[in-house]
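Entry type: protein chain
Record version: 2
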Amino acid sequence: MVIVVDSKSFGKKLKNHRAKCGWSQKECAEKIGISTRYLADIERGDKIPTLETFVLILNTLTASADDVLQDSLSVGYQSKSNDLLKKLESVDVSKRKQVLDIFNSVITSLKDN
């Protein structure tokens, strides 16, 4: 079995989490215990970290693996679905039916093709 990871998406998501923490690459790399160069390579998608380093990065950034890997994992759709549900909850109750009707229409249209 070959596992393919979208390294560009993976790196971008890690970079976004780092930015949310307000850390420079240097600060973040020091907290993780890796070189700034290696972190930059990961964020650009040029390198994929070992599992041990991956866990260190996630713990340092307090990021979840499913969020970071959702574009590379089939279960990632569950995470995206949860994000959509949270967004739907933020919509005014009177508008939720409209959103759901649009969503159902798109799904129906895609099934017909």
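Comment: The chain has a mean pLDDT of 87.
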